[in-house]
Amino acid sequence: MLRVNSRLLTTRKSQFMFTSNSLRFLATFKPADPLTTHDINPQTVEAKYAVRGKIPIIADELNELIQKQPQSHGLPFSKIINANIGNPQQLEQRPLTWYRQVLSLLQYPDLLKNGDPETVKSLYPEDVIERAQSILKHIGSIGAYSHSQGASYFRQSIAEFITNRDGGYVSHANNIFLTSGASTAVSYLLQILSVNENSGFLIPIPQYPLYTATIALNNAKPIGYYLDESNHWSTNPQEIRELIETNQSQGINIKALVVINPGNPTGAILSSQDIIELIDIAAEYGIVLIADEVYQENIFKGKFVSFKKILSELIEQDPQTYKHVQLASLHSTSKGVSGECGQRGGYMELVGFKPEVKDVVFKLASINLCSVVSGQALMELMINPPQEGDPSYPLYKSETESIHNDLESRAESLYQAFLQMEDIKCNKPMGAMYIFPTLDFDPAQYHKLYSRAKNSNLQIDDIYCIELLEGTGICCVPGNGFGQKPNTYHLRTTFLPPGKEWIDKWINFHKSFIKKYKDE
Amino acid sequence: MLRVNSRLLTTRKSQFMFTSNSLRFLATFKPADPLTTHDINPQTVEAKYAVRGKIPIIADELNELIQKQPQSHGLPFSKIINANIGNPQQLEQRPLTWYRQVLSLLQYPDLLKNGDPETVKSLYPEDVIERAQSILKHIGSIGAYSHSQGASYFRQSIAEFITNRDGGYVSHANNIFLTSGASTAVSYLLQILSVNENSGFLIPIPQYPLYTATIALNNAKPIGYYLDESNHWSTNPQEIRELIETNQSQGINIKALVVINPGNPTGAILSSQDIIELIDIAAEYGIVLIADEVYQENIFKGKFVSFKKILSELIEQDPQTYKHVQLASLHSTSKGVSGECGQRGGYMELVGFKPEVKDVVFKLASINLCSVVSGQALMELMINPPQEGDPSYPLYKSETESIHNDLESRAESLYQAFLQMEDIKCNKPMGAMYIFPTLDFDPAQYHKLYSRAKNSNLQIDDIYCIELLEGTGICCVPGNGFGQKPNTYHLRTTFLPPGKEWIDKWINFHKSFIKKYKDE
């Protein structure tokens, strides 16, 4: 190595500081090459996240082409329909007025202090003004860092919401952590639970790829348990127990059981009985239950019952057996009828954890300082909305009902469309925002398709989704991004895009796909 | 293991669903114990984060006591002064009106669509309305997820800001990643660069504890290089080179060199010459430069020059040597005169990275979906503020000047106070929000203090900060949370708290501390 001595530095300084750029400095060392993917953390290289993976990236490129060359892009469509991600406000779902009015005042409290009161009242209903004042009084500025777990005022309010939702079983504010959507909660939990590469996580198949991605980042082991497509994507506790026993006998230490209810990508809802059986497993094996309940408001059929409620009932019946069950339940402002994805609001409730373990979660939250405070406020507005008699109530009610009905009728339209498509099978969506139909293409009848797959290193569902995108602009995610039983193929689509035109395009595309690939 | 068979489940179900709570269910298995810290990821247990660590936690408890028993708490003060964290708006710094007016409209665009235009104009200046309209036109709703790197409109604007700041050297929007404050950027970078426990990270001592905490979480190796307190906390490139050579010879693979400029906790500013020498090190050894430049607006003395600008000049002079230097530079809306910590805005610019490595960062950002979109908008408002002639300009100018002057005069007052305190040494703060004075307590003169430390398992700076908190309510962070040379003791305080009263309390406390512990 050539060491830079102080004389040289002096020379250099004068060259650098005082001469024109045409005079070049002669380096005294040989520069190194930049890093490649072989030089960085292999877990970060290997993790996969299909929701914004290969096909959505192609969609982005096509979209860019359309923007740049609106007249001459040469594509058979003029816009991309993003059915790959549950992002309602990207697809014309309007935000709830109640949320946005309060957030508007929280961002600009001077309006309340210095604005002409009559003028302000002409623009904002009285209960909006009161709520904003009450929040500001308790938390101060939304521009200040809050407590690492989130402002105590919001946590108290969330605890009351949970208590009411669950029929009176008490929730405590110090068990609540405000998070950036639910993703941060998943990240904290999987990080603390990943001891080494033998730490196992039971995840549903199909699953939301955040889980496999985060498990991969933590170099832990995903253990998939199949949801039963033939029985509304229900869980099979016996299979889960067998997986635990098998994996334990192979030295895998199972740390958590992830349950997504209502299901993503399946749109299914668990019964109380399913939930009891999963809690039993957690109790018996000392496994943390991660209940991803972000779609709890998106229910079209059946009823949502929280893990917390059932666990509380079980503890009441049999405290010795259930008091140590460790449950993390997750919620978000991104889904439901809120759809406020970009605002990054969310919370998790931790029950049954030892204080020393909760302290570690607290430390992770502290390292991130706090979740965005406007998102914390939005969570409060979501779980504590206007009540009958409040000035904002009628509009709030009509907006939420309209969004809910829209989602339900879109789900139904898309479901009906899948039912009539040749060689597509589909469960009726009960909740969430997604349908996960089977591409039921029998190899004996689709020789061209399977030979294309073989020759192209693509899977059947990849081919279908790519051709759907290229033919119609509709962007979905192949089932292999979520996990599926071997030799089965699916896709996940949201039912968020408005209108029926895109569904008609899909039906037509499907006919031509069948014509192209099915044996005659 | 007792397997739950289907008959039992049926019995159970009926018990659970239909009987009163007084009838208890008899469990068929022995429940497991909950996890302890021995069962979870040891890196998460071991990571330390002093800014919200031991002493701030005591402060929170005292604060709770004051809130609960305002008349009978028995403490010698009536409020906590949080000088432990750079959180300006917690300490009465007012947000800039320009930011909050635009954000208010972004949250409630219906005001622009449906509100009476004259009324809206009476509350919001014209350029505020125009900016809000322009942002909404480009990004749609702030309630939608943006592109994983952040909305392209904002990234374009940030790239233009960097280009102008750095004298015309071009920045590209596709190199910009919007992040939640700068912490997320640090987390992505350290995560991808941590290959195994032999991955080394050069960090300054003293440093912001986010770095040691994140390195610990990634099970990598922190390698401290000392800043030279006797020379305004400057860097010593020769020492850094020696550290690299020594560590490499011991099998450590040095991945990144972290530089905080302006410094936290030191408040110092690097010279251009310092920066050149650090870039040379990065070029020669192929080490990623992480330039934490979040305090670039907080300059009271000297001049801030970005790493990106100097690197661009060097590339212009000698492209072969410098074109592969990998630089990540970080900025935030939390600091500067903005102080909008709770809004979680930030960005990083990546230059010199291979596309395949940048793709991995993109994937990590995608797994988190996107940073909060209102925080992205705030970043745009910060780097693209009103210009002379715009209606908002006069107020914007007077507010920013007033905050800047306040910070400067508070820094000066506190600095002067430290100068007059017995056995305290202190560099004049040049930037950022912090002072990091030395507690220059000679063991030969402070026998009682050193023997207390020995008997209590506390360090000298711990004792000082605890007694300061308990005596005055002022909450600081002991230097050992940031790192310090052996047998030296410091503390970090922000100079954000308003007024002089707290400084007078500190001076009095210090006198009594000296009286208590210094040999007579």
TrEMBL record, chains A, B:
Keywords: Aminotransferase, Pyridoxal phosphate, Transferase. The keyword Zinc-finger does not apply. Transmembrane segments: none annotated. Residues 115-495 form the Aminotransferase class I/classII large domain. It comes from the Eukaryota. GO terms for biological process: cellular response to xenobiotic stimulus; L-alanine catabolic process. GO terms for molecular function: pyridoxal phosphate binding; transaminase activity. InterPro entries: ALAT1/2-like, Aminotransferase_I/II_large, PyrdxlP-dep_Trfase, PyrdxlP-dep_Trfase_major, PyrdxlP-dep_Trfase_small. Its cofactor is pyridoxal 5'-phosphate. Homodimer. Belongs to the class-I pyridoxal-phosphate-dependent aminotransferase family. Alanine aminotransferase subfamily. This is Glutamate pyruvate transaminase. The lineage of its organism: Eukaryota, Fungi, Dikarya, Ascomycota, Saccharomycotina. The gene is ALT1.
